[in-house]
Amino acid sequence: MMRQILLVFVLAAGLGAGPLHGQTDPLRIVVTDMEGGAGTLIVTPDGESVLIDCGSHRSDARDAKRIADAARRLGVAKIDHLVITHFHRDHWGGLGQLAERIAIERFYDHGVRDRLPEDPQYPRYLAVYRRLSAGKRRTLRPGDSIPLRGHVRLRCVASDGEVLGGGSDECRRHPAAPPDPTDNARSIALVLELARFRAFFGGDITRNVEHALVCPVNRVGEVDLYQADHHGLQSSNHPLLLERLNPTVVVMHNGKRKGGGKATMTAFRRARALEAIFQLHKSLRYPAWNVPDRFIANVAPDASGTPIVVSVTARQDRFCVRLGFDGSPVSFRIRPGKQAPVAQAPVEQP
Ligand SMILES: [Zn+2]
Fold this sequence. Notes:
Elements lengths: L1 H12 L13 E5 L8 E4 L5 E4 L9 H12 L4 E6 L5 H4 L2 H5 L3 E7 L12 H12 L3 E3 L13 E7 L2 E2 L25 E6 L2 E5 L5 H8 L10 E3 L11 H7 L3 E4 L9 H7 L7 E6 L14 E3 L9 E5 L5 E6 L6 E4 L17
Parallel strand pairs: 3-4, 4-5, 5-6, 10-11, 11-12, 12-13, 13-14
Antiparallel strand pairs: 1-2, 1-15, 2-3, 7-8, 7-9, 9-10, 15-16, 16-17
Helix pairs in contact: 6-7, 7-8
Bound molecules: zinc ion.
């Protein structure tokens, strides 16, 4: 009897199903709270883990602890694939502290340079990266995929300033944004697919790269889920990108004073299919532009650490968004008939 009760409890807990993985497990995505940095953990139905960025270095190892905790909550004992979208400290500074807590098997980046003009401390972080990733590192080019078992696809659509298909300046519909000389413009952008579910993770790409991805042709295609580019900052999140990607749900990994505001929130609403915007934090900087509290993971000014958790149902016809691992799920239909990418990269011959 006790065993039956336990079994029912485990099944009912769903998300907390822990280390067991089988064909019926949903795809899970945890957008951890890096307080204006980035760290998104994806666990596939096969139990494989992909981490996109790993937060900042902190004396209290806050970000590394939060990512390690998310991995534990999702029942994964190691990070199979770590993608560093670009070499800014809010995206890779926490690497050394994370590696002390959980094993990392493979590393992906947009190409390593010896120096980064905007960060004098870059060589110190690079030394950590080189040591940890030696022999396990790969540079992702647009069109490359991260090798995953099962039916999940994770494909690079932008890297090192280049977009899938090479981009073009044919489109004159929008004036170009000022050139972005920083590493943001070289960020890796990824498209995640499982059956009909599609999600976009653009790192910190800025407006010219965003524009090249969708104009003159939409090289990304429409998506169900859009993780806001660049934490929801206004130098990214081009209105045309939102119009063309047309997500049902936007998740903004903003900080209390980073991301959001009029231009960003207006751009999100260019998506005709949009049903909800979720924020990691209630913005203190743009109070008039916050979504209602029930869509914000950390509402109080001192609230911190609650992630946004997305899961694709086992039937793969809906996806759910929760605030925290145990929050009540808000369910969305995975739209059939989304527009496919217009210019696919050549398919690799087996
Ligand atoms: Zn960033």
